[in-house]
Amino acid sequence: MLIKKILKSYDYSLVAVYLFLVFFGLIMIYSASMVTAVEFYETSSDHFYKKQLFNILIGFGAFLFAAAFPYKAFTKFKLPLKILLFGTIGLLLAVHFIGVEVNGAQSWLNVGFMQIQPSEFAKLSVIIYLAAVYAKKQNYIDQLNVGVMPPLLLFGFICFLVFLEPDYGTAGIIFVIGCFVILCSGISFKMFFKLGAVGAALLAVLSPFIYLGRRFIFTEERVGRIHAYLDPFQYAQGEGYQLVNSYLAIGAGGIKGLGLGQGIQKLGYLPESHTDFIMAIIVEELGLLGVAFVIIGLAYIVLRGIYTGVKSRDPFGTMLAVGISSMIGLQAFINLGGVSGVIPITGVPLPFVSYGGSSLLVLSLSMGVLVNVSMFVKYDEKYKTQKEKNAVNSSEVKNVYSINQ
Omega of the bond prior to 70 within 30 degrees of 0, cis? Predict the structure, then answer.
């Protein structure tokens, strides 16, 4: 009976949108990568399609596990949170010693059957850790020394490890996600602004070191991305090449698109067409209608997650839902902004749609956690609230009976 109630309480609309985006992405990955796989990797045209299908199967298994695992266990028992936190820190430390360098950053670990990016897992770990700790500190959440600061030290250490890879974009994303969790943790705006002042003071102290290490931080490649963002056509044969071809793909697509599989830019003109710039191929082949489906799907997940957080009566559930929603929304904004030239290119994949094992695995785990939180919210509303009403009614009947006696 209990299992039946739990199954009825799951938000299957979230599951449906998650699966739609994942399999839509699989179709687009095949379309965007078939020429690249043959011409540049000298393999079969469905090479990336098969690898992404394998990633989806692993990710869906992780999703089912996270959706069934009670999220409240992270606050009731110390072991799951310790395994998650120290496991993440261990992986981030391992990257600096045995990591694989890709695009100038030593961010990957080879685990045999696939390469994983620990910084991706750090995003979800930070959300769960901060949410679990601050949920326990609700009675003294506005006390700086005992309520707010201790978790921030570990949070800052994780950001620092990712920064050293060096992966400044992901470190920044993790930092912003953490800020969203802290903002909805129950601390007052006054305390939040105090933390901002502490952060500004810390930045002022570190500014001389940043200046001394500017050559390592602001490398030629990173400065080139800024140049390409400001005037891509001036650097069309260099740093702006990718963005210019993204513009051409978007312009060619129009409203209806050229047709699935009929895109031109994926024929060797647009680098990373099946990863970071897959949205440009979607626009070119499916037009604005294809883009609308993706954006509406992502927006639904983000808004539904925020709604779940607002409805939750558990501070831990609220912070988890808002943190996961902000992670998905932030990554979607950064990817779409880079593809369209609104912000500089950062190399962040489009959630659920772009090719990539680590990203999809973390997003699947995150969706599982979000669905689990949503299930508890719906279960509490439907069954616990009814029990409370019945208890109140029963008490009122007894009171009336005793008065009549």
Answer: no
Tally of residues, the chain: 405
* Cα separations in angstroms, 319 against 133, 268, 374: 11, 43, 12
Tell me the DSSP string of 302-320. HHHHHHHHHH-SSHHHHHH
How confident is the model over 101-129, as a mean pLDDT?
86
Contacts by 189-192 with C-beta closer than 8 Å and gap 24+?
191/142, 191/144, 191/148
Can you read off the two tokens belonging to residue 114? 């696939």
Question: Is residue 400 very low, low, confident or very high in pLDDT (cuts 50, 70, 90)?
Answer: very low
The rounded distance, in Å, linking the Cα atoms of 77 and 66 is 16
Q: Tell me the per-residue pLDDT of 64-86, one tens digit each, with 9 for 90 and over.
A: 999 999 999 998 888 888 899 99
Q: What is the largest CA-CA distance in the chain?
A: 93
The answer to whether 90 and 121 have CB atoms below 8 angstroms apart is no
Q: List all residues 6 or more positions away from 125 whose beta carbon is below 8 Å from its beta carbon.
A: 84, 85, 87, 88, 158
Q: Give me the residue label for tokens 């698109």.
A: 257
- Inter-residue contact 84 to 70 (CB < 8 Å): no
Q: Model pTM?
A: 0.91
Residues 6+ apart with CB under 8 A from 267: 35
**C-alpha torsion 79→65→325→106, nearest 10:** 70
Retrieve residue 233's tokens.
């056509």
Strand ranges across the sheet with 100-102: 100-102, 105-110, 115-116
Q: What is the pLDDT of residue 350?
A: 95
